[in-house]
Amino acid sequence: MVLPTLYHIFKFGNTQKHSEHIPITLNDINALPTQALSASLVASNATNSSCTYFTCFNVYRCGSQGNKLLVYVYPPKIYLDSAGRPITNQMTREFYQILNAIINSKFYTSNPYEACIFVPSIDTLNQNRLRLQEVSRALRSLPFWNRGENHLIFNMVPGNVPDYNTVIDVPVGRAMIAGAGMSSLTYRPGFDISLPVYSPLVNNLKTNYSNARIWLVMSSQINFNTAFEQDLMELKTTYPKDILVLGPCLHFNPMNNTIRCVGESIYKYPDILQSATFCLIIRGARLAQSALLDAMAAGCIPVIIADSLMMPFHDVIDWTKVAVFVREVDVLLIIQLLKKISHQRIMEMQEQNAWLYNRYFSSMEKITETTLEVLTDRVFPHLTRDYTYWNMPSYKGKPSPLFLPVTAPKTRGFTAVILTYDRLELLFLLINKLVKVPSLSKVLVIWNNQHKNPPPSMRWPKVNKPLKVIQTKENKLSNRFYPYDEIETEAVLSIDDDILMLTADEVEFAYEVWREFPDRIVGFPSRIHMWDNSTSCWKYESEWTNSISMVLTGAAFHHKYWNYMYTTAMPGDIKEWVDEHMNCEDIAMNFLVANVTGKAPIKVTPKKKFRCPECTNTEMLSADLTHMVERTQCINKFSSIYGTMPLESVEFRADPVLFKDVFPEKLKRFNDIGSL
């Protein structure tokens, strides 16, 4: 952290102590000091639509206090134009809550010289309340503005008639925008932050847990695009028992947002949303709608009909687990599409919806805190939280037993553990290939033959990496997973003595992938388990499919912790069964890891052709045709011992970047990657 500190000293002079700066308070926003803007002060530079994190954000402002994002809030003022008129209206409650949340958060600093992010105290949430050029002039007058660098502008209602732009029209230079209703055409990925439109109506929502959801889908917006009105009326005519279309109460009070009407019938809003399973969120003049949070608060699954809308915090939140997305041209197919969603899927979406809303969207404070957490991940990428952190409730996600950072350290490399019996020629060829892998730390040969001693040291390959031979007392497959003291690295490469087809690049790449997923099995040969309806049992399948649920440990990386777990904490008599039948130790390890982590293994590279336990070879263990039958028996026996099926299926494969592209080889890191 020397470089950021030096930058602070160079740019701002000696950093002033925190105690010299008085934290601001928001006790009386009705008695704020005033500041007259000079008539000669020009507006800020136009908003730079091509800004990225790397071109418009100064990361050297950050890190003065270690891995902590520090946010400075400018003291609130009333800015006056040359005629003495305020350039903005009184601060809204929502913006007050944003500032108050920052000031009372762990991110706040009263010292602007140590701040990474600057938040102006000018209320820009609703563009309808702003005098655009005057607000831009006020921003430029801020002492640390510097063309908007590292400044964060909050906005929830952008654009104005007739264009209704999807980003605030105030010129803000290089400032980041945390805004609602951004389009995929105007959103600057990795720079801006997409927000929801906060709805104060949810504060009056009375949750009715006993309320039956009698409607499949409901439309309750009073400001959606008129082009969809005819489509909704057609749906109502075709499916009168499935959809309820609510509108404003023109005969009662059309300006009252807390009620909706159908003919003469009046419904309280947003309480009525609790009687529907799905709620339509249709784009209006502005892309984002407050109806999204209304629906989530009422436990109604959002159906998003806004093709280019950037969903709130879409960088980290997986909205496919919470909402249904329908193209605008497919509006008339909505009922058919929603009826195809299973009851189980609906229950899962409702549960995820409730958790997501309570964690990120239930108040302006939560929205503000989430915004700053997203920024923290950007500024300090080595501390980035993973998908599980952002999208899985703690009671669902199984915590990793490994106390490792997001990416495991590379310094010590990995230990290759080779299980062998008597095939010296193949073993020596494998050792000579493995020592070419840059990250290899040590080779550990597990000699599983008690009737014949390993060859003398003079016969072993002369290699530049430590080589250790351990002779076991019994010929057991489980010996490959024993927690030997000689394994000093976090990573273990478990490999059979006949796996000669892997290149040094492929092994090194697999190790790099394991470093990003250190709690999983990462390897090459993959398999899948399937349910066989004809036998009402699980079936082991080695056919080439896109789905995998197991990675065979004949060539796979795993953390050495799993060796201890396999040896000391394997449920039931699984380990004894494996040793007795000389089969399925790899399946047992996959069961163990999946049961503890709840995660699927990861296959790397396209290679599928292996000399493996399923291949017909007179030298190999699996020449017996009963071998595949035993593998199926293993899966069913292990699942009965666990009392469940812990294996997780996934359609995922990790490949090196550019390895298939026509690109100069000297610019690629991994060139020697096989195709099949």
Automatic annotation (TrEMBL):
One cellular component (GO) term of this entry: endoplasmic reticulum membrane
Family: Belongs to the glycosyltransferase 47 family.
Pfam families tied to this protein: Exostosin_GT47 (PF03016), Glyco_transf_64 (PF09258)
GO MF, one example: metal ion binding
Keyword presence, Glycosyltransferase: yes
Cofactor section: Mn(2+)
Organism, as annotated: Lasius niger
Chief localization: endoplasmic reticulum
Keywords per UniProt: Disulfide bond, Endoplasmic reticulum, Glycoprotein, Glycosyltransferase, Golgi apparatus, Manganese, Membrane, Metal-binding, Signal-anchor, Transferase, Transmembrane, Transmembrane helix
Protein's UniProt name: Exostosin-2
